[in-house]
């Protein structure tokens, strides 16, 4: 198949290779190996938009595209995928993505024909579009080029496609709302990318190492900052541009919710650090007090709103919006401790949020209920799901020994050690964070109580009321282990990014 189809239409390429396997009378194991992203040793090099300083390096029989840069004094090796700052985040994304793909696998006790039919129904259609996510995940965290915009579009399109295929019956208006918000934000991102790429140079460039040393007039830097901020405020999301997220989570399939919570939302935080903070430091210093206030309001508002949600997935979605407030505060503190805490919160919530949506989906598969006031009493027939859900709820409310606690604690220390803010603003922001921390266990424990305690579903005989199987246990355990590991030894993650964080702050804010 031609390179153009394989790169820009990976879904078509995926379908083409799948049909090739079927026509060659390959068995089901071959097809499963195909869906595990086969790696080929044969590679092809292509120059794409050379003057923009980036190209593609593609395995000839794989969907994954690695980024290649021209050699030179700035990049002597010709290849640089990511630096220390977001290396752990990229690893987290791949881990979450693999667990998401595994949630769509079928049980192996079917016959061959029924296995293939079931696999086609539940896995192939979402996978054809989720393959775009896998493709863009390899190069979404590239700091040396603004291919970021291209891959944001790919990932949004992938989530929209899976939302269309496996969403609920009332998703028509929600699709338009999803497109309106995400496409509208991408317009600001595109204008900002073109603006910084075309300004102040005889030759247009999107090379990040050149752009990061570019100086802009203060008024122009503020305009660029506002444009990028609007784009990333939709992706993160930041209030009041957050309303698309709970509605999307409320109707989407839980595998799509895992991608949204575990990967898509974190691109907004990545953009705030790598573009707004590093590329436009003076404007970020001006707007950081406003961001601090927005982050505090978001923590309290989203936590309060989550408590009033009847829909299980909407309640988890609003809790995600609340936790994003800690990321905003960490980025706005302009300290190495606060920024490291924000990065740790990005990684931590990626695991916890994806796991909660996964367990909410497994519960829905059994009881076919999504409203909390209709649930109750399923802890006895499904004790494993009850244990797993309770464990991740504890992680979400920042129980000591888990990643959520250490991330929020580091953000708090970053705030109180910041030299940018006076004592009274620090006290007020800390008080607001404390209110959010108090509200979090209220809605988390209330959610667990309404789901698992009581008698509404206790005495109902239903053949689908079976407990978690090996698939759910494997996925949940694979996500829970990093949550515990980071909570016990956070330096395992922080050691990968601390040097880059110090370099960003020392070069642009402390000089």
Automatic annotation (TrEMBL):
Transmembrane region(s): 178-202, 222-245, 252-273, 285-304, 316-335, 341-364, 385-416, 422-443, 473-490
Can you list the GO cellular component terms from the UniProt entry? chloroplast; membrane
**The NADH:quinone oxidoreductase/Mrp antiporter transmembrane domain, residue ranges:** 177-425
Q: Where found in the cell?
A: Membrane
GO-annotated molecular function? NADH dehydrogenase (ubiquinone) activity; NADH dehydrogenase activity; ubiquinone binding
As given in the record, the signal peptide range reads: none
Q: Which Pfam families match?
A: Proton_antipo_M
The Gene Ontology biological process annotation of the record reads: ATP synthesis coupled electron transport; electron transport coupled proton transport
Q: What keywords does the record list, in alphabetical order? A: Membrane, NAD, Plastid, Translocase, Transmembrane, Transmembrane helix
For this protein, the record's InterPro entries field holds: NADH_Q_OxRdtase_chainM/4, NADH_UbQ_OxRdtase, ND/Mrp_TM
Q: How does it sit in the membrane?
A: Multi-pass membrane protein
Of which family is this protein a member? Belongs to the complex I subunit 4 family.
What name has this protein been given in UniProt? NADH dehydrogenase subunit 4
Report the gene name. Answer: ndhD
């Amino acid at each position: 198949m031609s390179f153009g189809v394989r790169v820009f239409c990976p879904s078509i390429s995926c379908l083409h290779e799948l049909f090739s396997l079927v026509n060659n009378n390959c068995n089901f194991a071959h097809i499963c190996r195909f869906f595990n992203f086969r790696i080929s040793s044969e590679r092809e090099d292509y120059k794409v938009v050379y003057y923009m300083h980036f190209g593609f390096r593609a395995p000839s029989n794989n969907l994954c595209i690695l980024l290649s840069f021209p050699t030179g004094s700035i990049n002597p090796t010709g290849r640089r995928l990511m630096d220390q700052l977001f290396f752990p985040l990229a690893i987290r994304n791949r881990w979450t993505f693999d667990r998401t793909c595994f949630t769509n696998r079928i049980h192996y006790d079917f016959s061959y024909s029924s296995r293939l039919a079931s696999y086609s129904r539940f896995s192939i259609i979402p996978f054809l579009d989720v393959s775009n996510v896998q493709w863009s995940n390899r190069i979404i965290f590239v700091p040396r080029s603004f291919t970021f915009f291209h891959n944001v579009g790919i990932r949004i399109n992938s989530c929209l496609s899976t939302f269309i295929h496996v969403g609920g019956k009332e998703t028509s208006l929600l699709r338009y709302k999803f497109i309106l918000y995400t496409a509208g934000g991408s317009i600001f991102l595109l204008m900002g990318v073109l603006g910084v790429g075309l300004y102040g140079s005889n030759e247009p460039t999107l090379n990040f190492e050149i752009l990061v040393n570019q100086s802009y007039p203060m008024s122009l830097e503020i305009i660029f900052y506002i444009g990028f901020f609007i784009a990333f405020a939709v992706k993160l999301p930041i209030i009041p541009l957050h309303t698309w997220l709970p509605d999307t989570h409320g109707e989407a399939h839980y595998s799509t919710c895992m991608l949204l919570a575990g990967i898509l939302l974190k691109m907004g935080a990545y953009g705030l650090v790598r573009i707004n903070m590093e590329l436009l430091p003076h404007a970020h210093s001006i707007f950081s007090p406003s961001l601090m206030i927005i982050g505090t309001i978001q923590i309290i508002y989203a936590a309060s709103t989550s408590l009033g949600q009847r829909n299980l997935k909407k309640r988890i979605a609003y809790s995600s919006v609340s936790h994003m407030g800690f990321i905003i505060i960490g980025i706005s503190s302009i300290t190495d401790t606060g920024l490291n805490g924000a990065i740790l919160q990005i990684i931590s919530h990626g695991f916890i949020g994806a796991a909660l949506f996964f367990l909410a989906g497994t519960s829905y598969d059994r009881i076919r209920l999504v409203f909390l006031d209709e649930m109750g009493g399923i802890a006895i027939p499904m004790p494993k799901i009850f244990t797993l859900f309770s464990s991740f709820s504890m992680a979400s409310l920042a129980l000591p020994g888990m990643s959520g606690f250490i991330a929020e604690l580091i953000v708090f220390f970053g705030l109180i050690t910041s030299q940018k803010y006076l004592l009274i603003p620090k006290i007020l922001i800390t008080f607001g964070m404390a209110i959010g921390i108090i509200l979090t266990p209220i809605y988390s424990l209330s959610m667990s109580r309404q789901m698992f305690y009581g008698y509404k579903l206790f005495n109902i005989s239903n053949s689908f009321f079976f407990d978690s199987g090996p698939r759910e246990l494997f996925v949940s355990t694979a996500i829970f282990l990093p949550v515990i590991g980071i909570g016990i030894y956070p330096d395992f993650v922080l050691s990968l990014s601390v040097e880059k964080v110090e370099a960003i702050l020392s070069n642009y804010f402390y000089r």
